[in-house]
Amino acid sequence: MPLSTRHSTFLLVTVFVIAVCGLVYELLIGTLSSYLFGNSVTHFSITIGLFLSAMGLGSFASRRITASLLGWFIAVELAVGLIGGFSAALLYAVFATTDLYYVVMVGLILIIGSLIGMEIPLLTRLLGGWGALKDTLANVLAFDYLGALIASVLFPIVLLPELGLLKTAFATGLLNIGVVVVNIWMFHQRLPTWRALSAITAGTSVCLLLGMAWSIRLTSFFEQQLYQDEIIYTDQTPYQRIIITRWAEDVRLYLDGNLQFSSRDEYRYHEPLVHPAMSLSRSRESVLVLGGGDGLVAREVFKYDDVQRLVLVDIDPAMTDLAMSHPAILAVNGDSLRDPRLKLVNEDAYNYLVDTDELFGVIIIDLPDPNNESLGKLYSREFYKLVQRHLAKGGVVVSQATSPYFARETFWSIVHTAADVGLKTWPYHVYVPSFGDWGFFLAAEHQLDLSHFAPLVPVRFFSAEVFATSLVFDSDISELETQVNTLDNQIILTYYEQGWRRWD
Predict the structure, then answer these.
(1) Which CATH architecture has domain 265-501?
(2) Cα(164)–Cα(402) distance, integer angstroms
(3) 12 confidence band (pLDDT: 50, 70, 90)
(4) pLDDT given at position 130
(5) In the chain, where are the structural domains located?
(6) Equal CATH topology for 5-223 and 265-501
């Protein structure tokens, strides 16, 4: 029986909806893998490639379906909704409890991709009796591509920040089931098994609704398996996953699963980061901090009475808001972000340096490790050239530079990259119990006399004697030849992944 215009139009809308769902599943898996392991280019490349290949297999396999096209389409849609809806929760559970993440990830991509690949051929054949083939294909592909566009916009702007990964997956699965419900209602006269399909649909809907209702608890449960201490705060922002844990008096901040500080020993990180640069610079009146949204660098900087202005640039307003409101962090940072000398800028550090004309006597770079492309650019030659441009005469730059022990090539690549723009560099390292051996470097356009370093303000740990020893590198972490990191070739991501993989 040929389709009416009303039914055909509805099927085109169905094409649009399933296109939205299909791309959301793809983005979910790529994003979750990037959050858990870093290196987003690798994980998105693998996810997209496998999805497209699986869709091709599904499209090829759909040739074997020669009867009951509508019934098959509904069955496929039910499977996509159920498996896709639970995909994020399953991956999170596997990551938290086993070492089989990549096996399960590949399996899910192949299954979901194959099912999605069957959808468009089946719908195209259902629409085949309505108008010329060229018009049918044009309409189907137009609605399919439009749906992909809408999904690509909604996912980072609305779905991820508002719902989070697990709830987005369940909501998308329910959208697939919504398509099934409307199709059964519209075409039940053409479906001899519509009652059985309705019962299966109802059961699937209940499972997805329960999953969505429990998504926050599920996320908390799985995350708790990853952390030894009690989780006291979680938030998914457009930029990162923020988690705070507590055990006894120890408060820890994690961004995308990476430890940022432990309140027990953070001073052993922040004192070496701040005080050599503040002591050796010819001027401390104007200070720039890139990163440091937790306020701990600012706390150390404001120990100097001659600091008149501190500009702190952190991309995530949720992080800086947290640092000004959460009691556990306020107890550590001393409410430093409310100091009247501080100007807070929620912007990408690279873009800020491009746009500003200011010069600074001290520039402190306290950014997360370069485990993805967005962070990798902040350790590039182009970035350090921008830093150099904003350094006042006689000024000093200091940066954290990951661990010279756990990621030796990464550390020296960062140092070599800064030196490549013409800055003189002085690498050093200290032991931080919660981090291990951790590296930094000082940089300036003029020669620094490091023997003149002495803490000018009260410190708990980083004395002149400790600084002198921090300049010495043992043979197993000593300098080695590396490539310079550039925007065009972020070799630092490869160094970083290879280095930490040896220990993970």
Answers:
(1) 3-Layer(aba) Sandwich (3.40)
(2) 29
(3) confident
(4) 54
(5) 5-223, 228-260, 265-501
(6) no
Q: How many CB atoms lie within 10 A of CB 227?
A: 16
Alpha-carbon distance 80 to 217, whole Å?
24
Q: Where would I find the beta strands (DSSP E) of 268-359?
A: 286-291, 309-313, 342-345
Q: Contact at 8 Å (CB) between 420 and 398?
A: no
Q: For 470-481, write each residue's pLDDT tens digit.
A: 999 999 999 999
The answer on pLDDT for 1 being more than 50 is: no
What is the tens place of the pLDDT at every residue in 211-253? 999 887 877 777 777 777 888 998 888 888 899 999 989 999 9
Percent of residues, the chain, with pLDDT higher than 70: 97
Domain 5-223 has CATH 3.40.50.12780: no
β-strand 250-255 against 436-444: which pairing, if any?
unpaired
Q: In whole angstroms, what is the distance from residue 28 CA to residue 35 CA?
A: 10
Instruction: Output DSSP code: residue 4.
Output: P
Catalytic residue among 366, 369, 474, 504, which? Answer: 366
Distance CA 488, CA 163 (A): 34
378: exposed, middle or buried (Cβ count in 10 Å: 0-12, 13-18, 19+): buried
Give the 3-state secondary structure percentages of the chain, helix then strand then coil, rounded to 5: 60, 15, 25
Matching residue, tokens 């009303």: 6
The CA distances from residue 336 to 225, 303, 309, 339, 400, in Å, are 33, 10, 13, 5, 20
Beta-carbon contacts of 44 under 8 Å, excluding residues fewer than 6 positions away, are 30, 34
Task: Note the pLDDT of residue 283.
Answer: 94
Sign of CA dihedral 433, 435, 439, 442: negative
Interatomic CA distance for residues 232 and 460, integer angstroms: 28
Measured in degrees and rounded to the nearest 5, phi and psi for residue 289 equal -115, 120
∠ Cα 53 57 58 (to 5°): 115
Tell me, what DSSP letter sits at residue 475? G
414, 432, 429: which is closest to 369 by C-alpha? 414
pLDDT at 14: 87
Q: Which two tokens stand for residue 378?
A: 């902040």
Task: Enumerate the β-bridge partners of residue 411.
Answer: none
Identify whether 144 is a catalytic site residue: no
Provide the strand spans (E) within 240-356.
241-247, 250-255, 258-262, 286-291, 309-313, 342-345
How far apart, in whole angstroms, are the C-alpha atoms of residue 24 and residue 264?
41
The 10s digit of each residue's pLDDT in 298-328 is: 999 999 999 999 999 999 999 999 999 999 9
Question: Which residues does 156 contact at the CB level (< 8 Å), separation at least 6?
Answer: 238
Let me know: does 453 contact 464? Beta carbons within 8 Å.
Answer: yes
pLDDT of 504 higher than 80: no
